[in-house]
Amino acid sequence: MNRSITVIEIDGQAVPFDEGQTIMDAAMAAGIYIPHLCHKPGLTPHGSCKLCTVDVDGRSVSSCTMPAVNGMKVSNNTPALMEVRKSITQMLFVEGNHLCPSCEKTGDCTLQAVAYHLGMLDGHYPQFYPKRAVDASHPEILLDRDRCILCALCVRAGREVDGKEIFAITGRGIDATLSIHSESGLLGDSDLSVDDLAAHICPVGAILIKDEGYEVPIGRRTFDLHCIAEPGLEPVILRKGDHTDA
Amino acid sequence: MGVESSNDVQGADHLLHRLYEIQLKYGYISKEVMLCLSKELQLPITQVEGVVDFYSFFYRTPRGRYHLLFSHCTSCGDLSLMQRCCEVVGISAGETRSDGLVSIDSTSCIGMCDQGPALLINQLPIVNLDDARIDQLVLLMEQQTPICDWPSDWFTVQEKVCRAGLLLHDTLEVGAGLRAALRQGREALLQSITDSGLRGRGGAGFSAGMKWRFCREAVGEAHYVICNADEGEPGTFKDRMLLREHADTLFEGMTIGGYVIGAEKGFLYLRGEYRYLLSHLQQCLVMRRQQGLLGSSILGEAFNFDIEIVVGAGAYICGEESALIESLEQKRGVPRVRPPFPVTSGYLGQPTIVNNVETLVAATHIALHGGAWFAAHGTASSKGSKILSISGDCARPGVYEYDFGLTIAQMLEDCGATDTQAVQIGGPSGRLIAAKSFDRTIAFDDLATGGSMMIYGGQRNMLNVVQNFAHFFAHESCGFCTPCRVGTQLMKNGVDKIATGHGTAYDMDELKRLSSMVKRRSHCGLGQTAPNPILNAMESFPEAFIGVLTHHEYEPYFDLDRSLNEARRLTGRDDAEAHLS
Amino acid sequence: MRNPKVRVATTSLAGCFGCHMSFLDMDERIVALLEQVEFNRSPLTDIKHCDPCDIGLVEGGLCNVDNVHVLREFRQNCKILIAVGACAINGGVPAMRNHYSLQSCLEEAFLNEIGVDNPMIPNDEALPLLLDKVHPLHEVVHVDYYLPGCPPPADAFVKILTDLLEGREPSIPAEILHYD
User: Fold this and answer.
1) pTM of this prediction?
2) Predicted local confidence at residue B10, as pLDDT
3) Is residue A233, in this structure, part of any structural domain at all?
4) DSSP structure string for A137-204
């Protein structure tokens, strides 16, 4: 083999990458955690949550969308960036109604786990307390928009994996909202099936499978046992309630 | 007067145009109509709904037969006139009167800054408003006089070129630039554009020659030319003048661009606020087709090119080139992830150049006069001229063209601005400068600008100016990325808290910290520039903030007593314990 | 001479006293704590108003006028104010009423609910008037530290108080940081 090796540097560590990979791809392959919410390997990167913000040669970029370029110097795990990410996470908390104690996703929620990782203790900003609609029309799936963080994972999972037009982000600015592709606008009238990835990919408690709440006892939920930054955790998060004790 | 039906023009089936027709006909866009439209156009219903909810000029609930939108701009807006109008009509802003006759609201700058205060009525601008005109206007509405019978001078938008320079001093003969271009051939012409040093006039200043070359070299099934006529930056109106007075030169610039990059199709994306210019522009296109300057075998050469006009519907973000492309593709105007850039993956994923109106006008002049002619003007980094929209507190607002390198002081003298405390260079997204910096120059390596020059005299409260801009950005954020979606709201609330006398030193620090974060971490130019007015004003006019801070250590983030209003009403209580201070 | 004890006040506003119960879950460790600490205003002492205190622990958010008065008394008297639990930090479960207007909440409870006798919205002047929304503490007063959890575990109370008593900047280890 005479292939030249391409490498980026993340916090001083040399990380090899293949042509076409993003900074996030390279970091994940190397077991380096860059906080993220709107990214899931296998789906088209979105770059909207900005949790994966890193500094590349002094410039702020989203690592999930920025192609790796040989010799790039990436700052990731710095106190300043952790502070920025904490602020962004706090923004996500206050713009919605994230009342963890009353949410079935608690303990398995990626937003919560990222917030733990960042040492977030409070929302910092004043609460927006939006009034967003709940959609319980689907026999097996519940949509609670109060908890939606507009990451569009469900939108992309539907289109790219399930091959269906189910979810879309509509509206503008702070009024952006998750909408349903059906005549009534209701989930029950959409093509969403409980077998679809779109029904399971939600990182927060916005899209939930009915009749499954609180099945795993406190102390044995995903993030009771794991820290979000552990390498290889990605598949575990999708297997909610299904994993064995570490 | 009146707005023509676009049924017989190109692009009539564009979602934005269909929705406009529906809005015009019914006064709103119902869910049923959206369903029909989604079936007919074979678009997901969520895409139709997404577009309706994204653009400010579409409504889900009925507007009045007379729908008034007052500009909320520090130059062409005066909301006290809106208040007066609301009082006379008997409704609040944002409401439609119960008889369905009239609805009133405010809107972002409508680009009439040299002849404000101004409003849009059923998408037509009325300029030079005052109390008397508002009263007359209400009378005409109450009498249900058709708008076409209203005094026509109300609707006459004057194009005042107060200073003509390199580009504006003469009007080119129709077709002359294009003929010169075809004579030179693609490569020589591109070289000439590159040699001219022409940089993007939208403010970012990317080399036009390089952009065209990258696009020309990019592989694709088709190439596209887009003219960004979504002149939405508050305080700018020079494109309005160019579109009205120099449309041929502009279309010729687009055609030349198409010739260079190998495109057969161009789009002019016109901001919804300038819809009144549409018929003029369409006419101009018709003439050009008749003259063989557009269409097949242009001027007898093996070159086909035509131009379609797409009209926006009230979304500042569509001035961002990738958001504009999304909008052209009948979607919400959400800026794309870059790279890839439009030159390789633009409209429909194909190589595309997006250029400002002024850039394309300049390109036609360069085709005719040569790159050296252009490069002889301006400064080393900034060749040629810049067309400025000057408005605000000055005696002679209007369009001014200067060679690059002029000082702000010179500009202020020319437009008759005395007692100026600040100039907002390049609109809210640009830079606010104070008197001590008036010796600075307009140039890419000093003060780069898209051309908006908003002048603030000594009597202006700069905090109110900042507040206006904070509201503007919060309204215009597309909502895609977290820092801008949430941050622009928090900045708005933060400025409001201080401006209403409830701010503390802590709030000021918080606002600064938040603004710096939003500026550095947002997805696109909107979020990256939205904090500029706050940060600039805190630096240059700290007393505007500090002077109104309370001396308490901490102040609540909501009005405690007002939050008891509802409970007082429900219980009928008004005792001492039913209040909080 | 012994150092004077650190004076601590506690209260529950729009909360459920669950944080207080969790506090008491420190079991026998409270004996050692009481060597260094004395409780002032608190449901544990039944003292009705604060004297000047070193630390105030406030559970619950703000749902009515009374909550605001009590919070202000705590802020005025406590050198360090700690927002304890989900409700104090972001409104928590009581903030779920923010989804509805106050009118519809009161009508549901006092006019339309099945089995309501003599339907009327209570208006006695002795009752604290409700705010139109439930709010977290930091929207009204400055909060020095936050102790999340619903409730925060007893270990977290021990940790934050020990840190403060020993003059350290308080921190919560990841193992006991949770929002539920």
Assistant:
1) 0.96
2) 63
3) no
4) -SSSEEEEGGG-----HHHHIIIIII----EEEES-GGG-EEEE-STTS-GGGSS--TTSGGGT--SS
User: Are A119 and A207 found together in one domain?
Assistant: yes
Residues A151 and A211 in one domain: yes
Residue A18 belongs to a domain: yes
- A56 and A114 share a domain? no
Decide if pLDDT at A244 tops 60. no
**Domains detected in chain C:** 6-94+133-170 (3.40.50.700)
Q: Which residues of C touch A94 (CB under 8 A)?
A: 90
Residue B249: count of CB within 10 angstroms of its CB: 24
Residue A191 shares a structural domain with residue A124: yes
Name all contacts of A228-231 with Cβ < 8 Å and 24+ positions apart: A228/A33, A228/A35, A228/A110, A228/A113, A228/A114, A228/A116, A228/A117, A229/A33, A229/A35, A229/A117, A230/A33, A231/A31, A231/A33
Q: Which chains touch C (3 or more CB pairs under 8 A)?
A: A, B
pLDDT of residue A241: 45
Chain A positions touching B496 (Cβ under 8 A) are none
Record: contact A97-C89, CB cut-off 8 A: no
pLDDT band with cut points at 50, 70 and 90 for residue B170: confident
Comparing alpha-carbon positions, the chain C residue that sits nearest to A124 is: C138
Q: How confident is the model at residue A212 (pLDDT cuts 50, 70, 90)?
A: confident
Q: What is the CATH number of the domain that holds A53?
A: 3.10.20.740
Q: Is the pLDDT of residue B454 over 50?
A: yes
CA separation (Å) from C129 to B92, B255, B567, B575, C62?
29, 69, 6, 11, 11
Contact residues, chain C, for B557 at CB < 8 Å: 139-140
In sequence order, which ranges of chain A are alpha helices (DSSP H)?
Answer: 23-29, 79-95, 110-117, 153-156, 222-225, 234-238
- What phi and psi values does residue B191 have, to the nearest 5 degrees? -60, -40
Q: In terms of domains, do A203 and A140 share one?
A: yes
How many independent structural domains does chain A possess?
A: 2
C-alpha distance from C105 to closest chain A C-alpha (Å): 15
**The domain that contains A161 carries what CATH number?**
3.30.70.20
Q: Is residue A124 part of a domain?
A: yes
**Cβ of B552 under 8 Å from any chain C Cβ?**
no
In terms of residue numbers, what domain contains A20?
7-77
**pLDDT, tens digit, 9 for 90 and up, residues A12-43:** 999 999 999 999 999 999 999 999 999 999 99
Same domain, A37 and A66: yes
Grade residue B6 by pLDDT with cuts at 50, 70 and 90: very low
Q: Which residues from B are below 8 Å from A88, CB to CB?
A: 482-483, 521
Q: What is the tens place of the pLDDT at every residue in B490-510?
A: 999 999 999 999 999 999 999
Does pLDDT of C97 surpass 90? yes
Same domain? A105 vs A221: yes
Question: What are the chain A neighbours of C95 within 8 Å (beta carbons)?
Answer: 97, 99, 127, 129
How many angstroms separate the first and last alpha carbons of chain C?
43
- Say whether both A37 and A104 belong to one domain: no
Q: Can you give the pLDDT at residue B203?
A: 77
B574 to chain C nearest CA, in Å?
Answer: 9
Is the residue at A46 inside a domain? yes
Q: Which residues of B324-349 are buried (b: 16+ CB within 10 A; e: fewer)?
A: bbbbbebbbbbbbbeeebbbbbbbee
pLDDT at B191: 97
B54-93 b/e with 16+ CB inside 10 Å = b? bbbbbbeeebbbbbbbbbbbbbbbbbebbebbbeebebeb
Q: Do C102 and B566 touch (CB under 8 A)?
A: yes
Pairwise CA distance, residues B264 & B254, whole Å:
11
Q: Residue B44 is nearest to which of A67, A165, A173, comparing CB atoms? A: A165
